[in-house]
């Protein structure tokens, strides 16, 4: 398989530099009662919303960075400014040596974007027609187009699919074609906004495999998602955004480390577990009368002691020990971010 | 330049394929547009058959004004006016983002994505009407034809400018689907010979809302009723088109996308 970036300089160098990026916009609010709706026709109180506040970070070439955060955190707004779709209120961005919103045409010719909820395909005609249209829009030469298309089609296994009308394709097939649309002009930097939303496990795995393959060829990916499996399987670096500010910028293992040495333990016992009792132990869920899921902070309660004492008290029949799921880490970070920002107004930034 | 031409051809080809995916819809749309556009000329025919008339205008002369109006719409609607509808929906849904991600001028992409081959039906009805009107008139001179062609280009420029103004408004007044009604209400005056209105309305329709330039002025030129002086209309048409472009780009800066 020929690399998509074959012949290009793929040495590690800063690809994106963001400094003090801020975006505020005005919006109006109204209630839901008929009186409030009627009042709103004549008077519309405006409110300033700080969607993104003072973001600063850099992204290296070849990186795979995931933006995480609860709904309304500012992830998509950040992504839109990085793609040149939105102008920031203040701050600077240089990506691929260009200012995205000022040198838009030059810049977008070198980036790709896939939006899980905004299709670039044309509903009534086959994806092949839409690919051809993109070829002309991006000014891709005939030979380069054919070569890239062949590579992508074989990698994503959509040979038959791309000649059927888009409306007849499954969501997974459509998403594969969305990726082809975004990659036909061989972008160096690709933005993915919830690329696996709504897909089944097999389709997700295919898409993730494709992203990994492209990344190994030097393509830089910036991903926003709520699917933490995407993060675990793709991202080397995670940036948690909440209330428009960076709460954490760290590696995935670094993120896990933030919660200390905690383990997730699932147990089936001879007698029902009555209470927590031990320091460093918390009950997460009572699955059945004799089945329980607990969290063990091994810094306070070593596993050896936990197993011995639990066995003596309740009699262990079955047990599984796992790392704390990433969901637990994120839940803690989202909550922590919320309370932190509302109390201190300055987000904690953990530098890599 | 070659790249832009290839891009135009590819997008139009794709849009045509998209429209023709549903053949019955395409055929029905074209047919209904033809019928819809022939309603006013049919009423005009009934008026003249009943013995009434637009003062100073024969039936065929009046039909010529309506034919030029329909022809102008037959070119402007498929090529430019679709952008009003696509801007309306894309800005509201936030999918206008996708146009900003293309390495081409945004206005060009907005016009191209709005390309609507259904509206070529208007070109058919306009051509039929134009033929019927000319059949009852003496053959225009070469000079009249030259004047007509230039003024018809001005007419298209004005309609293009109107579509830019309406589309541009939609970046700020998101979801205002009534912009089409504004267009219909204002341009309806252009379907009749300008001289049937009072002098003040004529001035309004020529200098303020240049509706008269869409059909009345080019038709008058083809009828040989105006001299070279009429070509002054080319200047305001170019000016309005320029203003439309500036307005659209200015309004584009206010695009805020939709929530992610």
Automatic annotation (TrEMBL), chain B:
<feature type="transmembrane region" description="Helical">
    <location>
        <begin position="62"/>
        <end position="84"/>
    </location>
</feature>
<protein>
    <submittedName>
        <fullName>ABC-2 type transport system permease protein</fullName>
    </submittedName>
</protein>
<feature type="transmembrane region" description="Helical">
    <location>
        <begin position="204"/>
        <end position="223"/>
    </location>
</feature>
<dbReference type="Pfam" id="PF06182">
    <property type="entry name" value="ABC2_membrane_6"/>
</dbReference>
<feature type="transmembrane region" description="Helical">
    <location>
        <begin position="27"/>
        <end position="50"/>
    </location>
</feature>
<keyword id="KW-1133">Transmembrane helix</keyword>
<feature type="transmembrane region" description="Helical">
    <location>
        <begin position="145"/>
        <end position="171"/>
    </location>
</feature>
<dbReference type="InterPro" id="IPR010390">
    <property type="entry name" value="ABC-2_transporter-like"/>
</dbReference>
<keyword id="KW-0472">Membrane</keyword>
<feature type="transmembrane region" description="Helical">
    <location>
        <begin position="229"/>
        <end position="248"/>
    </location>
</feature>
<keyword id="KW-0812">Transmembrane</keyword>
<feature type="transmembrane region" description="Helical">
    <location>
        <begin position="120"/>
        <end position="139"/>
    </location>
</feature>
């Amino acid at each position: 398989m020929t690399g998509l970036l074959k012949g290009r300089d793929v040495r590690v160098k800063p690809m994106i530099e963001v400094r003090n990026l801020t975006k505020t916009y005005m919006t109006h609010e109204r209630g839901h009662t008929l009186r409030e709706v009627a009042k709103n026709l004549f008077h519309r109180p405006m409110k300033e919303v700080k969607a993104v506040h003072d973001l600063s970070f850099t992204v290296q070439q070849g990186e795979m960075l995931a933006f995480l955060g609860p709904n309304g955190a500012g992830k998509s707004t950040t992504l839109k400014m990085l793609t040149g779709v939105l102008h920031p209120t203040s701050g600077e961005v240089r990506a691929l040596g260009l200012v995205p919103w000022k040198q838009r045409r030059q810049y977008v010719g070198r980036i790709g974007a896939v939006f899980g909820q905004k299709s670039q395909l044309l509903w009534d005609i086959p994806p092949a027609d839409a690919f051809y249209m993109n070829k002309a829009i991006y000014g891709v030469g005939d030979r380069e187009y054919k070569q890239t298309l062949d590579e992508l089609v074989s990698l994503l296994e959509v040979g038959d699919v791309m000649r059927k009308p888009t409306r007849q394709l499954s969501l997974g097939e459509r998403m594969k074609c969305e990726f082809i649309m975004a990659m036909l002009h061989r972008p160096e930097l690709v933005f993915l906004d919830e690329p696996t939303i709504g897909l089944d496990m097999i389709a997700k795995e295919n898409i993730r495999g494709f992203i990994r393959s492209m990344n190994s060829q030097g393509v830089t990916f910036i991903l926003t998602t709520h699917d933490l499996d995407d993060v675990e399987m793709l991202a080397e670096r995670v940036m948690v955004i909440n209330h428009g500010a960076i709460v954490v910028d760290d590696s995935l293992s670094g993120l896990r480390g933030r919660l200390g040495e905690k383990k997730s333990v699932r147990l089936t016992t001879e007698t029902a577990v009555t209470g927590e009792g031990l320091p460093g132990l918390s009950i997460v869920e009572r699955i059945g009368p004799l089945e329980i899921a607990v969290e063990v902070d091994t810094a306070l309660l070593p596993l050896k002691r936990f197993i011995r004492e639990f066995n003596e008290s309740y009699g262990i029949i079955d047990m599984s020990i796992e790392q704390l799921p990433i969901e637990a880490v994120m839940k803690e970070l989202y909550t922590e971010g919320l309370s932190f920002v509302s109390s201190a107004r300055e987000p904690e930034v953990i530098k890599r | 330049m070659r790249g832009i031409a290839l891009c135009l051809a590819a997008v139009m080809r794709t849009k045509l394929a998209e429209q023709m995916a549903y053949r019955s819809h395409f055929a029905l749309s074209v047919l209904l547009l033809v019928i819809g556009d022939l309603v006013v000329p049919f009423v005009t025919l009934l008026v003249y058959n009943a013995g009434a008339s637009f003062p100073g205008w024969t039936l065929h002369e009046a039909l010529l004004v309506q034919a030029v109006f329909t022809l102008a719409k037959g070119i402007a609607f498929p090529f430019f006016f679709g952008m009003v509808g696509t801007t309306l929906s894309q800005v509201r849904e936030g999918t206008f983002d996708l146009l900003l991600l293309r390495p081409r001028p945004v206005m060009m992409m907005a016009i191209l994505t709005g390309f609507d081959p259904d509206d070529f039906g208007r070109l058919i009805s306009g051509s039929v009407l134009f033929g019927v009107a000319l059949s009852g008139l003496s053959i225009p001179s070469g000079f009249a034809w030259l004047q007509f062609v230039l003024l018809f280009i001005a007419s298209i420029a004005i309609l293009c400018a109107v579509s830019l103004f309406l589309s541009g408004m939609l970046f700020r007044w998101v979801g205002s689907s009534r912009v089409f009604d504004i267009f219909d209400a204002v341009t309806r005056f252009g379907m009749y010979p300008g001289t049937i209105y009072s002098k003040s309305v004529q001035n309004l329709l020529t200098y303020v809302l240049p509706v008269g330039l869409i059909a009345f002025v080019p038709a008058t030129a083809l009828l040989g009723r105006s001299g070279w002086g009429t070509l002054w209309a080319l200047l305001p048409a170019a000016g309005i088109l320029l203003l439309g472009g500036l307005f659209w780009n200015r309004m584009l800066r206010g695009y805020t996308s939709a929530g992610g």
